[in-house]
């Protein structure tokens, strides 16, 4: 019913950045090679995500807005055993219940569909000419949940959260071309050629990118790759440490600590390195929190991974300064 939909929506959709995250994950899941994001007023007025992915068949469009209708989990909630980023089938249901949403989609080989959903209610579904791909416009987020609207911070803060979300997505998918506009002005783009260093350059600037050292370490269980910045580029907070496991952005204090330990001798007190670390491993070595929007994970062989990451960082830094 309407109330339980709105309550569940609060779990997935906390702020405009949560909408951006869910829409981007869907575009990635649909095998998009190009994703464009257009925001008005930090997404409070409008969030538009356009992709060139697989699209949705006309007969599946309505289903996409039903909670759990698309759930891909069969036996247990294990994010890392499913290939797609989405897995609970509740993002579109949640987002559409607290906004005014327009969907335009086409699989390319038949007529596309346009659907309008306001506050969880399907207002219309009709044929639409659209090239292959999907376009979702989310307007007036939280227009029908004023309590939630009151929790939102300034445009500046909300835009900061969105930027962080897009940065993470771009860093974990260097093979996808991202383009982002805010109030008509281009904020950000990536070339989508698979080159992680070029994504880093778009996010952190040329100077940082030029000061990056490559990490590469293969062990039996883990393949570690990525970049760490030279000591002279340290920052005053740890948000510049990006961790990616099997193409999924994560947060993990143990790996953060391993990086800091490996970096140790080069870190003045209160300074943190800029790092983008990609870790590939068997999905069975990762446990994930079941909360739909959370990114915390636990590693089953934590100590082993800790040592490998710490050593990789240490080695790169020490080779560099010898
Ligand atoms: P989930 O991603 O967990 O399956 P969502 O509510 O996020 O659930 O999306 C519901 C379904 O809508 C997806 O499973 C997918 O089939 C379809 N869908 C959503 N966005 C897109 C997109 N950009 N391109 C293609 N299909 C999409
Ligand atoms: Mg999804």
TrEMBL record:
The chain holds residues 9 to 330 of 612 of the full protein. GO terms for biological process: mismatch repair. It comes from Piscibacillus halophilus. This is DNA mismatch repair protein MutL. Belongs to the DNA mismatch repair MutL/HexB family. The gene is mutL. This protein is involved in the repair of mismatches in DNA. It is required for dam-dependent methyl-directed DNA mismatch repair. May act as a 'molecular matchmaker', a protein that promotes the formation of a stable complex between two or more DNA-binding proteins in an ATP-dependent manner without itself being part of a final effector complex. The keyword DNA repair applies. Keywords: DNA damage, DNA repair. Residues 200-318 form the DNA mismatch repair protein S5 domain. One of its GO terms (molecular function) is ATP-dependent DNA damage sensor activity. GO terms for cellular component: mismatch repair complex. The lineage of its organism: Bacteria, Bacillati, Bacillota, Bacilli, Bacillales.
């Amino acid at each position: 019913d309407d109330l339980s939909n709105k309550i569940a929506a609060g779990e997935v959709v906390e702020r405009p950045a949560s909408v951006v995250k869910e829409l981007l994950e869907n575009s990635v899941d649909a095998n998009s090679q190009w994703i464009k994001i257009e925001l008005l007023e930090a997404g409070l007025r409008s969030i538009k995500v356009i992709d060139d992915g697989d699209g949705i068949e006309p007969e599946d469009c309505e289903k996409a807005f039903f909670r759990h209708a698309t759930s891909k989990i069969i036996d247990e909630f294990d994010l890392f055993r499913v290939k797609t980023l989405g897995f609970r089938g509740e993002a579109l249901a949640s987002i559409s219940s607290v906004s005014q949403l327009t969907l335009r989609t086409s699989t390319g080989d038949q007529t596309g569909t346009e659907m309008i959903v306001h506050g969880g209610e399907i207002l219309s579904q009709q044929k639409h000419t659209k090239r292959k791909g999907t376009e979702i416009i989310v307007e007036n987020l939280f227009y029908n949940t004023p309590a939630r609207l009151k929790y939102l911070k300034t445009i500046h803060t909300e835009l900061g959260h969105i930027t962080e979300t897009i940065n993470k997505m771009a860093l974990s998918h260097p093979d996808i071309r991202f383009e982002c506009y805010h109030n008509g002005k281009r904020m950000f783009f990536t070339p989508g050629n698979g080159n992680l260093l070029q994504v880093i350059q778009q996010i952190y600037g040329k100077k940082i990118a030029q000061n990056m050292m490559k990490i590469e370490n293969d062990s039996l269980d883990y393949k570690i790759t990525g970049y760490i910045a030279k000591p002279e580029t340290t920052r005053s907070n740890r948000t510049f440490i990006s961790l990616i496991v099997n193409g999924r952005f994560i947060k993990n204090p143990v790996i953060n600590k391993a990086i800091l330990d490996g970096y140790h001798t080069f870190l003045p007190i209160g300074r943190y390195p800029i790092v983008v670390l990609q870790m590939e491993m068997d999905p069975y070595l990762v446990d994930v929190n079941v909360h739909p929007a959370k990114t915390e994970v636990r590693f089953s062989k934590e100590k082993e991974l800790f040592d490998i990451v710490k050593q990789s960082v240490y080695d790169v830094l020490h080779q560099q300064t010898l």
